[in-house]
């Protein structure tokens, strides 16, 4: 205890007490204890993180699932590891995570796999020099907060500039992450094969123009949105050489995927190309930590969904899968997943416009809901703060409005789900809509663990 400052000691103690009370009586409190700790000691993060080898995960989509995969692989390898699994990815939440795991006497080597909000990275790297920072992708998200993708990139680079000795593990298929003028060691992962051999980028894709000469990119293939094997036909800028890659897509179905990363076969238990990206990132981190393929595969096979990320629940006799959707790129991937269905299903669309969702909901017009018009959807449930905006968008997309069930109240929405004619229901919800609906389901006993 003599090695820690009195201010830091009081900060940790006060935060631990508040954390205990918050979790016991309010079933939450992932940010507030960190705020209290910062009030007492503004440098507390440096103290509580100093014994950890830290891996930071940032980017627009896939942070929570990728963080969970990396954490589980490291744990499967028998190493001591912590993570912020509640998704509290801003400075106070990250501080609360470290404090909840803090011990005054602990000399063991240990890892921390931490999800970080893009705009908060610079606050974290002020106090932590990570072993690795990984960036998943950059898409338009919360336009009122981030603006366009270049704004998001600049916010992330502000954080990286503070840690020039940190290794960067980057998505090579993300054109915005190539040729970064940073002194850091850079390693890239990506796809060396594609599912549909499509080389035409969508008109609403996020980063269509060369970041050096502004010419339209060409592609050997596109995976989704603007990700893929890109090159500029004008200035010659192209995708970096990949150290870790998807070399074969053996099977991609509604339940998951069987793929080959480099020279080894892996089973991924969650569907969609975006989850293959998440797993590839986790695999790349694991290989940088010299973890064996067999251990990685074993961990992947045990991987369960993080809350709200393809989480499957029983609501009455219905199987409801909750899918977080927060921007056009992610929503289109979720729709592609729904389109893998061979049988009929029902779907609920929950749209909110709270701060964490982004106040501007115009992005739903860049989502390709039209793909769903040819699917066998028996009931179309619509809810959330902006339910009428969503209903209009779905009607314009060609979904049959006579199947619409528009219901703001969660109790009534749940009853309507229980009355659906299909056994399988997909609930596509923006962030706070997902959080609030899960809280409602928890209060009714449909979910045992809220976080």
TrEMBL record:
It comes from Clostridium polyendosporum. Pathway: Cell wall biogenesis; peptidoglycan biosynthesis. One of its GO terms (molecular function) is ATP binding. The lipid II isoglutaminyl synthase complex catalyzes the formation of alpha-D-isoglutamine in the cell wall lipid II stem peptide. The MurT subunit catalyzes the ATP-dependent amidation of D-glutamate residue of lipid II, converting it to an isoglutamine residue. Keywords: ATP-binding, Cell shape, Cell wall biogenesis/degradation, Ligase, Metal-binding, Nucleotide-binding, Peptidoglycan synthesis, Zinc. Gene3D superfamilies: Mur-like, catalytic domain. Forms a heterodimer with GatD. Belongs to the MurCDEF family. MurT subfamily. It catalyses: beta-D-GlcNAc-(1->4)-Mur2Ac(oyl-L-Ala-gamma-D-Glu-L-Lys-D-Ala-D-Ala)-di-trans,octa-cis-undecaprenyl diphosphate + ATP = beta-D-GlcNAc-(1->4)-Mur2Ac(oyl-L-Ala-gamma-D-O-P-Glu-L-Lys-D-Ala-D-Ala)-di-trans,octa-cis-undecaprenyl diphosphate + ADP; beta-D-GlcNAc-(1->4)-Mur2Ac(oyl-L-Ala-gamma-D-Glu-L-Lys-D-Ala-D-Ala)-di-trans,octa-cis-undecaprenyl diphosphate + L-glutamine + ATP + H2O = beta-D-GlcNAc-(1->4)-Mur2Ac(oyl-L-Ala-D-isoglutaminyl-L-Lys-D-Ala-D-Ala)-di-trans,octa-cis-undecaprenyl diphosphate + L-glutamate + ADP + phosphate + H(+); beta-D-GlcNAc-(1->4)-Mur2Ac(oyl-L-Ala-gamma-D-O-P-Glu-L-Lys-D-Ala-D-Ala)-di-trans,octa-cis-undecaprenyl diphosphate + NH4(+) = beta-D-GlcNAc-(1->4)-Mur2Ac(oyl-L-Ala-D-isoglutaminyl-L-Lys-D-Ala-D-Ala)-di-trans,octa-cis-undecaprenyl diphosphate + phosphate + H(+). SUPFAM superfamilies: MurD-like peptide ligases, catalytic domain. The active site is at 360. Zn(2+) binds at residues 210, 213, 232, 235. Residues 57-284 form the Mur ligase central domain. Its EC number is 6.3.5.13. Residues 324-434 form the Lipid II isoglutaminyl synthase (glutamine-hydrolyzing) subunit MurT C-terminal domain. This is Lipid II isoglutaminyl synthase (glutamine-hydrolyzing) subunit MurT. GO terms for biological process: cell wall organization; peptidoglycan biosynthetic process; regulation of cell shape. The keyword Nucleotide-binding applies. The gene is murT.
């Amino acid at each position: 205890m003599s090695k820690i400052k009195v201010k830091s000691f009081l900060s940790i103690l006060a935060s631990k007490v508040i954390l205990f009370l918050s979790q016991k009586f309010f079933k939450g409190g992932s940010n507030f204890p960190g705020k209290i700790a910062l009030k007492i000691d503004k440098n507390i993060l440096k103290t509580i993180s100093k014994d950890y080898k830290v891996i930071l995960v940032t980017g627009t989509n896939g942070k929570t699932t990728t963080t969970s995969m990396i954490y589980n692989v490291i744990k499967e390898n028998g190493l001591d590891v912590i993570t912020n699994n509640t998704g509290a990815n801003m400075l106070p939440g990250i501080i609360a995570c470290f404090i909840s795991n803090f011990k005054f006497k602990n000399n063991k080597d240990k890892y921390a796999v931490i999800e970080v909000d893009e705009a908060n990275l610079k606050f974290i790297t002020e106090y932590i020099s990570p072993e690795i920072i990984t960036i998943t992708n950059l898409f338009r998200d919360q336009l009122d907060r981030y603006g366009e993708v270049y704004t998001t990139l600049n916010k992330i680079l502000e954080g990286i500039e503070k840690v020039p000795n940190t290794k960067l593990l980057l998505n090579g298929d993300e054109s915005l992450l190539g040729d970064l003028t940073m002194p850091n060691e850079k390693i890239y992962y990506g796809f060396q094969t594609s599912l549909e051999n499509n080389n035409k980028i969508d008109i609403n894709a996020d980063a269509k123009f060369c970041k050096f000469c502004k010419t339209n990119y060409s592609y050997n293939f596109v995976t989704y949105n603007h990700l893929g094997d890109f090159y500029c036909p004008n200035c010659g800028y192209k995708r970096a050489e990949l150290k870790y890659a998807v070399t074969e897509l053996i099977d991609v179905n509604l339940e998951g995927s069987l793929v080959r990363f480099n020279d080894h076969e892996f089973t991924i238990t969650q569907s969609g190309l975006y989850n293959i990206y998440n797993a590839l990132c986790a695999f790349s981190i694991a290989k940088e930590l010299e973890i064996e393929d067999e251990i990685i595969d074993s961990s992947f096979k045990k991987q369960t969904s993080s809350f709200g990320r393809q989480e499957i629940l029983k609501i009455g006799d219905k199987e409801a899968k909750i899918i977080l959707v927060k921007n056009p790129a992610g929503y289109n991937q979720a729709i592609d997943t729904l389109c893998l269905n061979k049988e009929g299903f029902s779907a609920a669309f929950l749209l909110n416009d709270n701060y964490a969702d982004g106040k501007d909901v115009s992005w739903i017009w860049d989502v390709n809901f039209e793909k769903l018009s040819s699917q066998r959807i028996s009931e179309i449930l619509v809810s959330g703060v902006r339910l009428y905006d969503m209903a209009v968008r779905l009607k314009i997309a060609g979904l049959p409005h006579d199947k619409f069930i528009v219901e703001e109240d969660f109790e009534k929405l749940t009853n309507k789900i229980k009355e659906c004619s299909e056994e399988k229901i997909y609930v596509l919800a923006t962030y706070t809509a997902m959080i609030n609906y899960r809280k409602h389901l928890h209060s009714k006993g449909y979910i045992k663990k809220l976080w």
